[in-house]
Each structure stands twice: as structure tokens, then as C-alpha cells.
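Pasting as-is:
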Amino acid sequence: MTGNIPLLNCLKSQPLANRSRPTIREVAARAGVSHQTVSRVINNSERVNPETRQRVEAAIAEMGYQPNAIARSMANGRTHTLACVSPNLTDFTFASIIEGAELEARQHGYFLLTASAPEEDGFRNLMEQLLASQRAEGLLVVTPYIRPHHTQLPRYVPTIFVAADPCLSGVASVTLDEVAAGSMATQHLIDLGHRLIAHITGPIQEDCSRNRQKGYQNAMQSAGLDLDPELTQEGDWSATSGYRTVQHWLARGAQFSAIFAQNDRMAIGAIHALREAGKKVPQELSVIGFDDMPNASYFDPPLTTIRQDTFSMGSKAARLLIQSIETPDKIHRSIRLHAELLVRQSTAQVPL
């Protein structure tokens, strides 16, 4: 112990700035080899005999040398960088997808760059910047629709679409089975005895809105129920659009006992409008949402909703993208995830 004390004191007395990390040339000098040989050992080259490799590895361990990961990647023609583009970075669904993708990428030794392109015009320029200046090896495109984006992407870059319907051949994606999810939400209300079920969609140009509406229609038709066009209205995902849609229905005297809103925010807006009109939820009318956004179980009443595992969606998309990069000759299929019905207290049996 006492033999180490002078060395410890010496180290403690040195300013942190002076304790520079060992360089590859210093490692080479310690091992008695060239710095090119050290580089070959670091990169697992077969052009190093076992005895030399052992000597170099011992020097690396003794000196605590850590290779520069960026330099290694660039030397190999790799950056281990992925890019993810989303309409925005604040929406709960998009943010959760990105969080899942980022964690999965990191676990595989990749770095995920994220950026937003709220307008179609900026999408192509953003793609070019990420591919040219950041040298991204693959792209995750989080989007509610594939078609306008698909034509703007270079074919040579591995790309996975997230949350958009894989409606084009040769396009890999990870998405929710939106039709089945829309049917599940509607069937829950039907099973409670509801026959007049109103429906608030998201923007109808988006794949998920159309597919959730298709699920609603399928469930209604399978139950032999009429589809009243007046009871389907388009929203914009905001609580305000849910609120105004219900106000519109009530002002026109529309008859319904339940509402399926295509996201939780519109469902909350709908409940607010019903309460303002003196309607009790769920005693008089039932409301089901979609997404299971944070705190949905703490709303008043706790919201019955359809849960989509957006974190898992992002994780699976990143894994699929990395597989596409590392095994480019393999055909990678699209993945459809299943939703989950969470029954809480905003839905109940139809009042007699």
C-alpha cells in the first residue's frame, strides 16, 4: 500500500486538464509495434498474429486506452448514425415512438438523430441534410401517411416508416392494426348495448383516421346497425375539435348514446361539451377514446380507451432498420402491432 501512496499523491496534485488520455501512438510504443498494428487490433483485423495481438491488448488494458468511436466508424465507412423525422417532436404519440427507437438504437451501438418536418415542403431538404452532412445510414420516417414521403426518399437508403399504413409494395413499416383497433372500440360500445354510436375521426387524409373509421364501420355493419352519415364528423386531434363536434350534434338534436373519438384529446373535449349540456358520463352517454395518453386513467371519469404501445412501435422500427442496414440482402417484412382495450369508467351499459 505505502509504495502506491507517492503515485496517488502525484496524480491528485495534477490538474485534471493535464491528465490527457493515452494516444494510439503511445499504446503502440508500449507494445513495441506500429500504430497501424494497434488500429488493426482495435478493429479486429485478422492480419495480426496472436502473440502481437495479446501484447497490444495488454498495453491497451494497462494504459486504459479507449478508441475514438467516431474515428473508428469513419475509418470503416460507417457512422452508426440513424435519422428519425417526425411531423413534430412534442406530440405524445410521436415522442413515445422516438423514445423507443432511441433506446433500441443505443443498445445496438447506433446514435439516433431526430428532427421535425411539419410541412411537406421541408421534408426533402431535411432528408438531404441528414444524409449528406450527418451521413445517416438509415431513416425512420414517422408519418401518418406514406405516399407523399415515399416518392421523396432515395432508394439506396434503408428506410422504415412508422405509424403509417404499408399500402405500397416494397415499403417496410411498423404500424398498428388500425382497422382492428377501430372495430375493437366500436364493438365495446355495441357489447354494452349501444346502437346509436357517434364517431369523431381524425383528419381524414391520414391513413390511421381512415382505417379506424373503417373498423368502426365494419363493427357497426357486422352488428346490423345503420351508419348515419350525420353521426360521423371529422376532427383535428385537438380537444377543441371534440368539444365543438359534440356541440354541433347537440344543437342539431342528433340522437346518440355513445361516442367513439379517435384519440383521447377529442374524447376529453367531447366529455366537456356533454357536461356543459347537463349530460352525465357514463350514466347517460358513454365515451371511448384512443391512445391511452398519460393521465387518461386520472381523468374525470377515468377514460375508457384503446391503448397502442407506441414505445414498442419505435423500438421495433429501429431494430428493423438496423437489420436492414446490417443484412441488406434480406427481405424485411412490415410489422403490424395489436391494440389493447382498457375499460375504465367513461363507458357503461346503455341506459334503459
